[in-house]
Amino acid sequence: MRRYIALITILVVVLTSCSAQTNKIKHYFSEASNNDEDFTSKVFDVLNNDKESECTIEFKTGIYNFYPEKAYEKYVKISNNDNGLRKFIFALEGRKNITINGNGATFIFHGSVIPFLVENSTNIKIENINIEYDFPFDLEGVVVANNQKEKTFDLKINKENKYKIKDDILYFSGYDWEIGMGENIVYNAITKSPEYFTSKYEHNFNKHFLKATDLGNNIVRFSNLDAAKVPPVGSIYSDKGPHGKNRNIVGFRVYKSKNLVLNNINVYHSGAMALIAEKTETISLNKFNVILKEGSTRVISATADATHFINCKGKISMDDCRFENMLDDATNVHGTYMICDEVIDASTVALKFGHFQQQGFDFAEKGDTLRFIDRTNLLPVGIGVVKSIDMINENYYKIAFEDKIPDFTKKNIAIENITWMPSLEVKNCSVKQNRARSLLISTSKPVLIENNYFASMMAGIRICGDANYWFESGPVSNVTIRGNTFENLGVGGHSPQAILQIDPIIGKEYRKDGYYHKNIVFENNKIRTFDPLVIYALSVDGLIIRNNTIIQTKKYPQIFNDLSPFDLQNCTNIKIEGNTYKGDNEASISLINCQKLEIDSKQEGFLENTIKNPNKYFYQN
To answer: For 282-343, where are the alpha helices, taking DSSP H only?
Structure first.
């Protein structure tokens, strides 16, 4: 029977460890004798006192609980998540030189609280912590029966979930929150990965609600299913609630800060992104893991991305990190496009956001350089330096520029901030068992992706650019992807997913206007894949594909078996050499409207001549 050793009554021993000149303060926390004791106010008091001091906070190894009743509260606008009034436990605002060391402690958060806020702070180090919640922010259960004809399935709901049924709708809940069902996915109970062709089982919650009937013994029968197939018996059905309401509780909210270090941290669960950083300069992640707790019966860690970086700068580095079982990408590094709503005068424009989860984002400040792009072809049409910016409301900004801007009368314009773009280095990391992609990269600064393992449900590395849906900028100009292993990606079945997918959203009629991305190298990688598509590249000037080994596996039946392994469209300055393909048939290279080519015709396992076989599944084809 588990018992925790009763340690010194409650904590805080405060020790002034250095001279008054350095003004360093050290705080020690020891696990309480009462296992349910709330440490929220104790942490708040420590951080709220001596705000000008350097500070180290250490926890003795153990379990610490945090509740919402005494948590710090403020309204926050968190891009790509849901804005609102949020409660925070470790609130670092306007601080410098703070270290928080958990020494392997587990922090259990109760209810709708965000563990860490780092805002307007410099030189922050957080390390050696395990993050867990009392109740999961998704509903999970094992499918124990199904009926394809009646479109019903019975779900044995995980004992960690609290739920109730009201007016035929199931609501799941936690300490101080409740949400109905919405976005869903089916996982394989054995592999704890998304089920093969899982898109067939996804219910269209936008059209129909799932009718719930309680059968007793934690078993609920769901009917009114709007999906191609019912979930298989033995699979795990997960639901995280309706879109627009299920991204509230991030793990780390980082905003307008500098020099953040996160070491040896395990995020076992979060009710949105595990880490979201905006307008922050220089972030280092070492052994920052978003994973399931060992022995857990759950299949979902974070209910959105493991990490996400928006309009940061300096260098973002990730080394020896594990990102597993998230319901979105391992990372997404990008800028933001705002739509030019009105040209007010020769040097002033009014802007709005294209996506509702960007509203309120701190888009620019005085002195930033902004780039104007044509939304049809994503190509630049001018730049301007910000003189002033006024946020009238969360979705209406006015920006005045130092000089006159080009005449945009006949163009559909979006604007991006090119002052805030980071370099990126991802090394020795592992991504697997998650919905969506491994990495999304949209930054013009140097990018190195080396010696990683990727096994996500969708694309391996996606390089996009989009001024019409997610509104995530911008073009890359120096990307090296080498020495990585990619294994059986693209099992979701929604649409073809490439190992390297370069797919800026450009309408077919505008692709000849120019090239969006530049200088991408994909070399010395090992790809094990059941589906043919390896590289899809659109609108690239400078693409090198060399010395990669591609091995066809038989782990799953092929989904899109009529595609060419290499599919390049509207690209120039292409070099393809030294690659090896091992499969049932020779691999083909499809080229459409490509020029300045250097292609080795003697690559092992490849057809000698190129063909025309463009991917017909992507909408823009």
So the answer is: none
Specify whether the CB–CB gap between 50 and 34 falls below 8 A.
no
Neighbours of 368 (CB within 10 A): 17
- CA distance linking residue 97 with residue 51, whole number of Å: 11
Q: What is the per-residue pLDDT for 24?
A: 74
Look at residues 414, 292, 303, 296 and name the one whose alpha carbon lies nearest to residue 349.
Answer: 414
Q: Which residues of 86-108 are buried (b: 16+ CB within 10 A; e: fewer)?
A: bbbbbbbbebbbbbbbbeebbbb
- Measured between alpha carbons, how far is 323 from 239 in angstroms, rounded to an integer? 20
Contact assessment for residue 276 and residue 250, using Cβ atoms and an 8 Å cutoff: yes
What span, in angstroms and rounded, lies between the C-alpha atoms of 234 and 146?
10
Instruction: Give the Å distances, CA to CA, from 357 to 245, 291, 392.
Output: 11, 25, 17
* pLDDT for position 529: 98
The residue assigned the tokens 């449900």 is 457
CA–CA dist 450, 427 (Å, integer): 5
Residue 610, CA distances (Å) to 292, 546, 588, 602, 618 in order: 45, 16, 7, 12, 21
Residues of the chain with pLDDT under 50: 1-22
CA distances from 198 to 128, 187, 195, 563 (A): 36, 8, 5, 20
pTM above 0.70, yes or no: yes
The first and second tokens of residue 364, run together, are 């620019």
Q: Where are the alpha helices (DSSP H) in 453-595?
A: none
Q: What is the pLDDT of residues 174-190, one digit of tens each?
A: 999 999 999 999 999 99
- Token reading at 527: 């790809």
How far apart CA 136 and CA 325 sit, in angstroms, is: 13
Which strand (E) or helix (H) includes residue 41?
A: helix 40-48
DSSP-derived secondary structure letter, 398: E
> What H or E segment, with its residue span, contains residue 32?
none
Helix ranges restricted to H, 307-412: none
Tokens of residue 146, six digits: 């199904």
Rounded Cα distance between 425 and 435, Å, is 23
**Distance between CA 112 and CA 130 in Å, rounded?**
18
Residue 442: left if φ>0, alpha if ψ -120 to 50, beta else—which one? Answer: beta
Q: How many CB atoms lie within 10 A of CB 239?
A: 25
Q: Which two tokens stand for residue 456?
A: 């996500």
Q: Give the amino acid at 383.
A: I
Task: Measure the CA–CA gap between 387 and 345, rounded to whole angstroms.
Answer: 14
How far is the C-alpha of 134 from the C-alpha of 66, rounded, in Å? 10
- How far, in Å, CA of 331 to CA of 326, rounded? 11
Scanning the structure block, which residue is given the tokens 């609102």? Answer: 84
What tokens appear for 487 in the block? 């294994």
C-beta neighbour count of 397 within 10 angstroms: 21
**Other beta carbons within 10 Å of 587:** 21
Of 589, 452, 459, give the one whose Cα is nearest residue 529: 459
What is the secondary structure of 369-409 as a DSSP string? EEEEEETTT--EEEEEEEEEEEEEETTEEEEEESSPPP--T
How far the first Cα of the chain sits from its last, in Å, is 62
| Beta strands 453-455 and 430-432, pairing class | parallel
